[in-house]
């Protein structure tokens, strides 16, 4: 998941569709994010490349909408509803995820195990 | 240090390893007697107790009769000391003569014209008389300077002459002689009338002597102040090592500096501690016997037999060694435990003893209802309660020959007088201090020999190795040059210290 500046990034992604849940007055998704281009990438425990400033899932609440939809701890979020998440600040990412007038978010996430699964299935053929 | 040692034969000690027959055998303990004087305690100790072995070895020589060996020793001592005195007095005599010559020469230059041709001499004007004052004061300064630099008690007797001093003395002599030569030829023979010229000539002599004295200060004192070599001094018996930084000195002068520092830096030489390792090695080699199976006229020649014997012994010793390290480990652990136990008892006993002593204030002294004691009596009063614990501790750490009962009581009185705590009193017994800490009769090493492959008046060089031998041990000295240090500079602008805060925040969505 490392990137070379100027070159397009390619990754194996999984589509995840999360339906927001009403909790009191707020709509919640049930996970926490960390990372962003304004944050310190070396403190990210989930990234392989410590210069990666992408948005990562740092906590998934049990039984919440995110877990039900298939989001896992340590996933890197590449797109939210079509908006790119690889080069955004932390606050911009939060805003894109918590829009009040949307109750469904469609994420493209990537994780290391996805690449391995694809590679294994390709080798079998 | 070369000190007179007429009384040495009374206090020499016989260590187990030395086998020099010229020494006389005497009791190891000082004439004040053993520590506590109760014979029953000695029987319990099985550890090496110096009194036990040396009292049995006294053969026919009491303190008042002289054996043949004693006579030889005394005559040797006398020879040594007479030789030293001669050399020392010769030096003093020579320097006094040179000093007098130097001092009186300018005065002679000034006075002789007045004595020999007073009528023809031109009168001395004011400038000339001013020069008299300058001569007088410069001579006074020269006198003080020479006294300060040269007439000090000597610190050590060196085996060879001190090159710089000899050089300077020769220089001064030549200088004064050449001035006298010139004076004699040009002034006395021709009977010059220009007295001012003569006075100026005398002033120039005194100036030049002051400059020679400056040269002496630089050569003798200043040159070796800048550190140039680092000397590593190791004691051969127990490996105690110290490092000293010295300047450019000759080997003999470096040896003197090292010995002066030896007495304050190295822990005192304790032969009792060294016997343990030797006994271990002799024990396990002694158990091996070599049998020659081939016979004398067999396949191997004589050399081959000797070789195979030694190889067999070494191989067997190597196999044996597998178990003796175990013994060493347990023995040392046991010893450590015993020392700590005795130490704890000692500390408690001493602390308790010190609580009985109270210093009386001035006001209370007037109305003395109980006996008032001076420090010595106070020490004697509390000594018995800690004496046994102290003696046991000293026996366990094998220091009992370094301290006599008298010295312990003196130390106790000293500590009481100066308001020291029990811990301060005990410090000199719990740790072995440098040799200076113990009385002069414990300084087992006072006669030193310098052993060197290079000439002792040559300067120190990188890699010079020399030995300082005394009767009981050697000090091995190796020299290393201090490397040339190249310092570079880096400038940091004080405004360049700036910091940013980088966080990793986590938001739940």
Automatic annotation (TrEMBL), chain A:
Keywords: Acetylation, Cell membrane, Cytoplasm, Membrane, Nucleus, Phosphoprotein, Wnt signaling pathway. PROSITE patterns: PDZ. Residues 15-112 form the PDZ domain. GO terms for biological process: cell-cell adhesion; establishment or maintenance of epithelial cell apical/basal polarity; neurotransmitter receptor transport postsynaptic membrane to endosome; neurotransmitter receptor transport, endosome to postsynaptic membrane; receptor clustering; regulation of signal transduction; Wnt signaling pathway. One of its GO terms (molecular function) is protein kinase binding. One of its GO terms (cellular component) is adherens junction. It holds the Pfam family PDZ. The keyword Cell membrane applies. This is Tax1-binding protein 3. The lineage of its organism: Eukaryota, Metazoa, Chordata, Craniata, Vertebrata.
UniProtKB/TrEMBL annotation, chain B:
Keywords: Cell membrane, Membrane, Transmembrane, Transmembrane helix. Residues 1-39 are annotated as: Disordered. The chain crosses the membrane at residues 89-111, 131-150, 162-183, 198-220. Residues 1-23 have a biased composition (Basic and acidic residues). It holds the Pfam family Strabismus. It comes from the Eukaryota. InterPro entries: VANGL. One of its GO terms (cellular component) is plasma membrane. It is found in: Cell membrane. It is a multi-pass membrane protein. The keyword Cell membrane applies. Belongs to the Vang family. This is Vang-like protein. It comes from Carassius auratus.
